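Dear support,

We are seeing what looks like truncated structure output for some complexes. This example has three components. We would appreciate it if you could run it in full and send us the complete token output so we can diff it against ours.
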Amino acid sequence: MSGLRATMRGALAEAWANRRGFWTQVLVMVVNDLVWVVFWVLFFHKVGTLRGWDSHRILLLLAVLTTSAGFVLGVFSNARRIGRLAADGDLDAVLALPVPPLAYLLVRRIETTNLGDLAFGIVLFSVAGHPTPERVAIYLAGSAVAVVLLTGFLIAIGSTAFFVGRTEAGELGFQAMLMFATYPVDVFAGPARALLYTVIPAAFIGAVPARLLSSWNSGVALGALAAAVVFAGAAWALFNLGLRRYTSGAVWTQA
Amino acid sequence: MNARLLIITAATSARRALAERGGLVVSAGFYAAVIAVLGSLWRAAANAHGGHLAGYTGTQLTWYIAATEAATVSLNLRLIEDIGDDIASGTIVVELLRPASVLAVRLAAEIGRALPRLALCLVTAAAVDGAITRSLPGPGVAAAAVVALLLAMLCNLAAQHAFASAAFWVRDARSTWFLYQKLVFVVGGMLLPLEVLPGPLEHIAKLLPFMAMAYAPGRLASGHVEPVLLLVQLLWVAGLLGVAAACFTAGERRLQVVGG
Amino acid sequence: MRSAIEVAGLSKTFSIGRRSRRRSVEAVQDISFSVEPGERLAYIGPNGAGKSTSIKMLTGVLQPSAGRATVLGFVPWEQRRQLVRQIGTLFGQRSQLWFELTPRQSYRMLGAVFGVEPAEVARRCAELAELLDAVDLFDVPVRSLSLGQRMRCELAACMLHEPAMLFLDEPTIGLDLLGKQRFRDLLVRLNEERETTIFLTSHDVADIEHVAQRVMVINHGTLISDSEVSALRRTLLATKLIEVVLEQPAPPAALTSLTGVTVRLQSDTVVKVEVDTSRRSVRDVLDELLATFAVADLSVVDPPLEQVIAQIYTAPRPAAP
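Here is the complete output from our reference environment:
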């Protein structure tokens, strides 16, 4: 554990040392997030309410989404790169250390610019979320569940690279996840809706926590927690199974 | 202006884009997902309002989104950054040595690159939205939409080049591409029809060049017969091309004086 | 005394290509050897021979397709985390150091990872700085170091936890001549002062000449030679080189009259004579040279190791049994 703590300290130090263009990049993130806020405010200004969703609830969704995505992409930034690391043989240095490889990878690299999203989410919730102690607790818990889910999802998808080599699947899955998570899931029907609660669990990253903040439901909360556990477990299993098939970027396996 | 050179440049670019089959499939998949999701949203919104929203039916909104997304997804999203990189790194200096307008050749290359993507978007839209709405736009509407899409892309490219030419003077201008992109998204009508914007904002948005890059083809594809939009687009194309040409000429002159 | 490394029948097959064009490549086939503690061993072969694959199996990075191995008593791919506490690894192209930080900052973190107390880390840093002549380097950001300086710091990184064995995969790649020489000297010093077992892969023959006591040659995935470095030259090539400096330029006819040897003219007065000792003795050739020419100087040497190794590499691939 002390090894992982030291690694995280090192990641922070390294990120801080590499802060060229930091503020421009953070501005990019914040403007990006603001555009979604503007879009949804305009949309609900015209539409009013849609299947139980209004501008207030959508802002809660965006708050949780930007907080959790900002955390995952910022603090656990290697989660997004698992596929590339596996395919290019960049796991050798990790395997030379007496640490659990997945945990080490997750804390090894911090992408400071995505912390802009994290900050945006916190500010948005503070401003538009009517924070009470109870609501803050739900917001934090919801964000934590979303972090676990998103991390698990990214690692699971990235780990497919151990089995099928480098593909676009990782990046595409991630983009799809983020895109679907930006929409109130109740807009979708039938198979699309089922997809967003299962294979691409985007519903749990924004819509479900937002709904819980509006009206608490223990069953739904437990469902979200269960989904997080399932994805975390699947990710851990896939990664470690994949590690046994790791080829260290051997030239022969580059198709 | 050597028209033959431009046609060859565009054709070569198109051929190269067609060869990247993996990239095309990925683009098409992404586009299909986006129009399905956004289309779903707007249809649900229209249905919740007795079938009409801001003067559009659910079906019309579906085709609106298909067109606005096609106009932007077909293009290189980070073009401004790439142009900025080429200016900063001096790559553009090599192009100055050729007996042709740097801007014209670059525009031709980008158009060529975008055409296969646009064609694929149109086919995808016909398949996806055709299945969802169980209808296709009539031939007149389709023709107007396709012309508007081509003009929209040309407009967008000219504006991006004008924007990017700031890199001849300012080193870090390239990182502002995202601001430009967001303006197209909201004020250009890519994410939502301009009629959805509150009154004064709608009027302002319709006066800006961004509306020519997404709103115009979207409006036409949704079945609204407003040929004046094509004229507006033509005027913006001419204006933005002029601005871009002036910026590039000034920039090139600066390079010759100051060095790369 | 237990062997440091025991390998039996180790093999690794990679599967390459997509779908219908899928086929197997046997990167390592059925290799067996053992290494004693304190040895300095070079494991050489041309590119694609299977060197990196072998070392990665021994350090637990890759799982073998078949065979057994133990390193310091551990099965590498099953007990990787216990094993890596006892070994240091330096893969030439992959860095242990954090690019934006100083080496010292990296060492502090590595110390925490390996469970070395901070005070002990500081002591070992000082020791290693002396040993590796890197006192001025530890507080400079890694991105500002030259490749040679960086490699010395990488070596310190893999020595920090005082491992019993070092695995080095192409460590001198990219270094200039002086850098390579210094690095080789360091490895020898580490082995002599701390009895660290050195397992080094390389395709640079000079690494063998200056570091290794023993050399294993791998090609096409199989071990084709395993011997002491000195024996390698003697047994594998029945050749001696005589370098002759003449007092005056020799007439070409006189040179071609020498039989059973290959004559290479370096300049007007310097001649290299290659003697096939299975056909003529060196003594014979020397007598003839001294009788035929006015010799100013001469020396008899073994052929360069490059020549020996090249001959091993170009030997045909052994047929499948």
